[in-house]
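Is oxalic acid placement plausible here? Inputs below.
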Amino acid sequence: MNILFYASFANQDEFLKSLKKKFIHHKIFTLNQNIKLDKIEVALVWNLPDKILEKLKNLKIIFSLGAGVDHILKLPNYKNTPIIRIQDPNMQSRMFNHVLSQILIYQLKLDEYNKSQKKNIWLDERHTSLNKDLTIGILGLGYLGKFIANKLKSLDYNIIGYKNTFSTGKNSIPIYYKRSLKTFLKLSDIVVSVLPATTETRDLIDKSFLNQMKKKSLLINIGRGSSLNEIDLLKHSKKNKYFFASLDVFKTEPLPKKSKLWKNQNITITPHVAAITDVDSSTNYIFEKFEQFRTKGKINSDVKIKKGY
Ligand code: OXD
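Reply from A.M.:
I modeled the complex. Tokens:
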């Protein structure tokens, strides 16, 4: 089978090497080679340009080289080709570690000590909350959100979740649905957004959303930048001295140098690193799914294409 690899990762060469080692009986091409794009049946991609997708006339399956699939669904030439996304326990652990680190920095007021260290100031002790006294609201309970929720719960935090659509299954945490967003926000000391980029989530975290959050609270966005109205956040932060945000994803990435988010004292910026793609385990995952597809001749998309995630 002819496979195309295209990624805009810093470690794309390492990824390609790992894939080639695993797919020994198949040819993995890159755009640097002289290849006939209409012979490609499998594409392993991250941020593939639409003009290339347009030429993949014989494509049978697309693998997203990350957890998100919006980089594929947004392409005008994307039709209905099945998409497989990476679902890797290592990614779950990484994302959980990132979230926990941001919670603890906020909860233990570590930033205050850090700032005072820079000025040689021995700060008086600050009161900090115990885990059991904090409620953490998780927005978006997919593969990553659910994992984060359960791990945090095992550490004694009070965990609640928010979902757009009602589902009947048993949940390990209280779930708030669409119209109860207000209550969900009122209860949460920390809100963690793991929302995907869809038309429904676009700018969901806006002025009204932020105003419904507790005055003293923390917003962690590790989902997609499109769900946060950055201008509304900056305005909100100006008026609310005890409101903090930790952002890993942005409307435009890399975050432009001129963005006002960089300099805001209450906003922490990380460069989309909350759950980096783990090369070896992702390679194994992709290969396993690829083999299912190759032996059966077809595979179901694990993406709800109409819903956009
Ligand atoms: C993502 C990823 O989808 O980093 O954002 O995998």
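Short version: The first strand starts at residue 2 and ends at 7.
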